[in-house]
Design goal:
The protein has six helices and five strands. It has 178 residues and is of the alpha+beta class.
Length: 178
């Protein structure tokens, strides 16, 4: 409907410009046409992507380059990016020293983490998108951060929405994941 109204308005202005020979009307018509074509391409106004969207790929083209959300901590961003790109080092460096010692005491090393990630990649697991939801400060200087991760299960499995909760220490490193 907007397109029809614009076509009629432009048509009348063109007829008036031809009849009167006015340069001002022709300039107005050209400007209106340029603005109209930019705003109403395919019949709708183009809107920006919502803030906070990280990744944006889909199952057909794989994960997209991650974009940082406002207020998103480095540690959680790096952990999830490492999970998406199968990079254990990126994930491991997001952990606090206390947490890495705890993992090592239970037999988990950066190499064993990389082996788990490699196994997931071979089975076809993909992180399609990560969405930062927000944070909650804790009285001792720590904070909790919340995400929803969209991923495929193994080998063309259905899309799943997985909630992640991270607890960060006062230095901004991960001390717990859920």
């Amino acid at each position: 409907m907007i397109g029809r109204v614009m076509r009629r308005a432009v048509g009348r202005l063109v007829l008036a410009a031809l009849h009167r020979g006015t340069l001002l009307i022709i300039t107005f018509v050209v400007a209106l046409g340029v603005v109209g074509s930019l705003l109403f391409t395919s019949g709708r106004v183009a809107l920006p992507n919502p803030a906070g969207t990280v990744g944006g790929g889909n199952a057909s083209n794989g994960p997209a380059e991650a974009q940082r959300a406002n207020g998103e901590p480095d540690a959680t961003y790096n952990y999830l990016r490492g999970n998406q790109t199968f990079d254990a080092k990126l994930m491991w460096t997001a952990y606090s020293d206390r947490f890495t010692r705890s993992l090592q005491q239970s037999g988990v090393t950066m190499d064993s983490l990389q082996a788990q990630l490699d196994q997931s990649r071979q089975r076809g697991r993909q992180v399609l998108k990560t969405q930062y939801i927000g944070s909650y400060p804790i009285a001792n200087g720590s904070s909790m951060h919340f995400y929803v991760v969209t991923e495929t299960a193994f080998t063309r499995g259905p899309v799943q929405y997985v909630p992640y909760t991270f607890t960060l220490d006062s230095s901004g490193k991960i001390v717990r994941t859920e």
